User: Fold these one by one.
Assistant:
Number 1:
Amino acid sequence: MPSHQSAQRRVTVPLDIHYLYGGNQTWDSALWTTSDDRVRGGSSQSYLSVSDADKTHASFNGHLDTSTLGGAGFASQHSRGELTLDLSSYEGILIIVAGQHKPDGKRYVLTLKDELLSPRMDGRETSSISWEAEFAAEQPGEIKLPWKVFKATYRGRDKPDAKPLDRGNIKRLGLMMRSFFDEQDGDFALDLSAIATYKDVSTPGRHTDTNAEDDGINLKAHRSTRQKKKAQWKTLLCGLI
């Protein structure tokens, strides 16, 4: 699988960190629940596993199947119940990838919700807008996801007219493995030390992330390179035909 660029940075500046999971908060798989594409007739499966006795690490793992739904598919875990998180004073989400195993380099998505709708009449969950940030786990260490890289989506599709994310009223946090329209599938595993919020405290009064713009450029550059490679293959195949 090719290496993916992402909104990923080594953290090298002093940070004010508030742990949500891991760190000074132990991991607990009972605080998470499954939401896979099986609710739509798919076959993907995901788990949030905590295996070490001290509960300092967790693994988001499973199998992404894209054959059942014709190239589509997702496997995800999200916080159980309704959270009441005020993250308005922080600059984004910090993911700390553990070093027990070599990361698989696949593209993951961290999701946030500031609204949870009432269940449908049949008991199934009602879809609502999610705010998503893509990242690739290519090596152990910290991954910064500033607020600017979170994009509003509805059922996996961009929702550009959505109102801004209410960072003072976060009700759900999740992790997702997505096919990205049949670009990836199969087994996956993301070993985590922690998920936290962060704020740069190197400069007093600073409340913006200077890496946000560069992070967005890197994501666009990766997508542009992927599109060029697809175009080159199409040209080659047409020549052969």
Note: The first helix runs from residue 212 to 240.
Number 2:
Amino acid sequence: MTDILPESFFHQPTLDLAQALLGCKLIKETEQGVASGYIVETEAYKGQLDRAAHSFNNRRTKRTEVMFGKPGYVYTYQMHTHCLVNVVSNEIDIPEAILIRAVEPDRGMSLMYERRGQMPAKNLTNGPGKLTKALGITMEDYGRPFFEPPIYITKGYIPEDISIGPRIGIENTGEAKDYPWRFWITDNPFVSRKR
């Protein structure tokens, strides 16, 4: 538990934090047990000026409310049938967040298979909806801090090489679809997919 990243870790600019999270470990404790994975892919969403962000134009709704708060908190939202997990970033009233797009499984593999079914290991957590299901992250985690149980981020390893490119699945967002705000650990087999 001593390796939990302090609240101060999250107080860095969104694009920096999106890269700093790579290689860190995301852990979720549930009644069924503990599951964790190393973060291998992230996407930054820069709030009011980013047409791909839920908080574009400072849109403040029940869903986006947590984004207007302090950094280092959980922003979960429902996309189709999937729950997606984000790290709130920047400062109060600057609604930015980082989507965790993929993790490399660490602890609790049997739990992940139980939740996701049988498949090649590399498909367990290589997407934002897959990793939340595998780790047991749900809408109930909305608004929790990322620096204390049951959901928290710890130190992991420093990636040797980070790749940068446009985000995925945001086609109808004008110029925002081309911003190079997706970051991933180069050649990691658990990264979601190429755009």
Note: Helices lie at 14-20, 109-116, 128-135.
